[in-house]
Amino acid sequence: MKRILIVEDSDMVMKVLRHLVQSAALSYEALYATSLAQAREIYDQFPGEFFAALVDLNLPDAANGEIVDFTIGHKIPTIVLTGSYDEQRREQLFAKGIVDYVTKEGRYAYSKAVGMIHRLEKNQQISVLVVDDSDVSRKHMANLFRRHLFRVLEAVDGVDAIKVLLDNPDIKLLITDYNMPRMDGFELVRNLRYKYDKTDLIMIGVSGESSEALSAKFIKHGANDFLRKPFHPEEFYCRIIHNIEALELIEQITYSAQRDHLTGLYHRSYFFNSARELYRQAQEKSAPLSLAVINIDHFSDINRRYGNYGGDQALKYIAGRLEQMLGRFLLARADSDDFFVVMPGLDHEKAVAFLSKVKQLLAAEPLSIQGEMQHFYFSAGVTAHLGSSLDEQIALAIQYLDRAKEAGGNVIVDDGDDDEDN
């Protein structure tokens, strides 16, 4: 298990930090020390198990910042707290490789320090690409990213960068030098913007050239930001974090706009927009496309027995289980206890076989509601008949669902059943 080391000798500050760490719900256990000696003892108990350290620069037994040498020496990403700002000391600390430097200027400063630990957690899942033909410059920027625990890839010019991007579609940020052979940074940004929106890929230009117009040229043609060399690590991190947090905010807003507020599944509007595109592709390619309308059997009984809270609890549970099993397809909450799912590549027989397994697995795992175990069953209508529109296909699936309900529920009715009736 990874841990966080927090070293602070002030009782008041330590109390604030403990509260903020608990409120932040970090996924790492926090261990606390009030001196360098205690920090050593804690580290000796859990060597190599520390994800990050938040340390006071001036301790009773380490008045000259020896705690930083200790944590950095053990390769622990370190955030420094200090009671005073000193330009020379700041330069020395960044040269040693600290993550950040925060002055004790009230609760906001402590929140910022704890927030940086959370930022390091998230950075581990973010891939970045550094593009520069200079080995020294490229390695320097790559090391700055690694200090903040980003996943780092490298490219020597624009042509190489495009190859790396194609092989690593999860890259979220690209930082590129301007003057490079084969394809320079400006051409790279301009070409990539044809494929990647600013909310898909952050691009930051860098250059040591003195031209004042270069930054505007980069940004006008697609860069999110620009840095002039040589830059201080603190400026580098401020720009990087600002751009990443802006992207994360947009992703959060987009996610919320597409999702049902209760279950977290896609809502009707998003479903219809996406399903129409899948329908169009299936028609063009003459490919199978099954659509299912699912309804939870006797769900009104849950609401009557346990009230709205119990009903909401059940819906969230059911939606979560369906997401686990059907998440690779387009799944949405249509209304109340109705769900839509579009399954590209599956004809009605394969779709029914798959949904039958889903139904079986859902029924096998009960949910405890107000101390009582409840099993859930569903009925479904499934069709692979494309008809003349998506709406027509949904209408047919609903007809099949109605027949499943008339048969008593816990049944899947599909095109094969319709053929038998005819």
TrEMBL record:
UniProt keyword annotations, A-Z: Phosphoprotein, Two-component regulatory system
Annotated GO biological process: phosphorelay signal transduction system
Residue ranges of domain Response regulatory in the record: 3-119, 127-244
List of residues that carry 4-aspartylphosphate: D56, D177
GGDEF domain: residues covered: 287-417
Entry keyword Transmembrane helix: no
Alphabetical list of PANTHER family matching this protein: PROTEIN PILG (PTHR44591:SF14), STRESS RESPONSE REGULATOR PROTEIN 1 (PTHR44591)
Record protein name field: Response regulator protein
Gene: rrpX
